[in-house]
């Protein structure tokens, strides 16, 4: 019973670490940001390796903090997850990404796919499929052009529940991508357990000495395996021309990375997509 009071008191104890103070301040301003105009969605283009054209983009959240400047997602997403703020934030990103992409497709007169990151917490929320459907209805965004990215650790956390929710999401007509593939140790069995559409090979996986023959064979084997499972493959974190050329020599379907384009605000993306030569 004394616990709560003591915790409040503890806020003011001098030994409270700077890190804890910062987290407290961040949590308060994160709640404020949700109600205001501080969040912004950036977009990173995704290129089809056969045609070398942009076929879509990944939505990446940015927080423009009035005093701290732009706070990187790695600094506030884990906190948002911990403090139960990730579902409303994720919902905001999804809605904004669908709105922006509808607008973009209208301006450019061609279809574009958009992928949105979901955290493990959001996957635990049984209302997620209904929320996604509501956003599709509200924005008029075509379900088959929406891709939801989940890490393998989020998927395997509770396999039964994940499989159930993924089926419901797939019933809406949206696509499911495994993010950061190659960074976990979950084995490959889960790839068959879920109805997935896309594997996103993590940067660390793609980057390794791309000239090395065994690495080439390794990546090539993964791409072939994914294709055998009817999954398409996106290479993330492509930073050099060499890596891009290497990927083109495999059957990898798409690529994304700084060498192609950095994540950018919507206005810059419109300019980028309108410029005739991209690569
Ligand atoms: P992620 O989903 O793996 O996103 C890719 C990250 O790699 C992005 O970092 C992107 O800017 C960065 N990146 C892209 N190309 C390159 C490259 O060539 N080299 C390098 N070094 N990095 C590259 P960002 O935007 O800082 O996001 C970091 C992570 O934060 C994301 O990793 C994702 O896990 C999380 N995140 C971002 N937005 C959201 C969101 O709306 N919801 C959730 N739940 N998580 C998000
Ligand atoms: Ca992602
Ligand atoms: Ca990733
Ligand atoms: Ca990542």
Give the SSE map.
Elements: H1 3-10, H2 18-35, E1 39-48, E2 53-65, E3 69-71, H3 73-82, H4 86-108, E4 113-117, H5 120-123, H6 128-139, E5 146-151, H7 152-156, H8 159-171, E6 175-181, H9 190-193, E7 198-201, H10 203-207, H11 213-228, E8 232-235, H12 241-248, E9 254-255, H13 266-274
Parallel strand pairs: 2-4, 4-5, 5-6, 6-7, 7-8, 8-9
Antiparallel strand pairs: 1-2, 1-9, 2-3
Helix pairs in contact: 4-6
Bound molecules: ligand C2E and calcium ion (CA) (3 copies).
What would you note in describing this structure?
An 8-stranded mixed barrel has the order 1-2-4-5-6-7-8-9, surrounded by 5 helices. The longest helix is centred in the middle third of the chain and has 23 residues, at 86-108. Helices cover 48% and strands 19% of the residues. By secondary structure, the protein is α/β, with parallel strands linked by helices. It is globular, with a radius of gyration of 20 Å. Residues 1-12 have low confidence and may be disordered. Helix 4 (86-108) runs parallel beside helix 6 (128-139). One calcium ion (CA) binds at residues 58, 117, 149, 179.
């Amino acid at each position: 019973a004394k616990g709560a009071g003591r915790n409040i008191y503890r806020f003011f104890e001098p030994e409270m670490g700077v890190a804890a103070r910062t987290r407290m301040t961040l949590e308060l301003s994160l709640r404020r940001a949700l109600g205001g105009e501080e969040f912004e969605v950036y977009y990173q283009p995704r290129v089809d390796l056969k045609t070398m054209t942009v076929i879509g983009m990944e939505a990446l959240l940015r927080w423009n903090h009035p005093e701290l400047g732009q706070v990187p997602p790695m600094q506030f997403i884990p906190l948002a997850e911990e403090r139960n703020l990730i579902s409303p934030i994720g919902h905001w990103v999804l809605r904004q990404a669908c709105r922006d992409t509808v607008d973009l497709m209208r301006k450019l007169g061609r279809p574009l796919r958009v992928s949105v990151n979901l955290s493990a917490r959001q996957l635990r929320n049984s209302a997620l499929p209904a929320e996604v459907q509501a956003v599709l209805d509200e924005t008029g965004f075509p379900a088959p052009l929406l891709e939801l990215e989940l890490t393998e650790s989020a998927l395997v956390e509770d396999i039964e529940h994940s499989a159930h929710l993924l089926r419901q999401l797939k019933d809406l007509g949206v696509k499911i991508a495994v993010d950061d593939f190659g960074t976990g140790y979950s084995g490959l069995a889960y790839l068959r357990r879920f109805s997935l559409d896309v594997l996103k090979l993590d940067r660390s996986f793609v980057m390794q000495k791309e000239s090395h023959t065994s690495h080439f064979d390794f990546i090539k084997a993964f791409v072939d395996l994914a294709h055998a499972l009817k999954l398409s493959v996106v290479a993330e974190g492509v930073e050099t021309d060499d890596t891009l050329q290497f990927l083109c020599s495999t059957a990898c379907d798409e690529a994304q990375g700084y060498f192609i384009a950095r994540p950018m605000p919507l206005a810059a993306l419109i300019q980028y997509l309108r410029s005739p030569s991209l690569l």
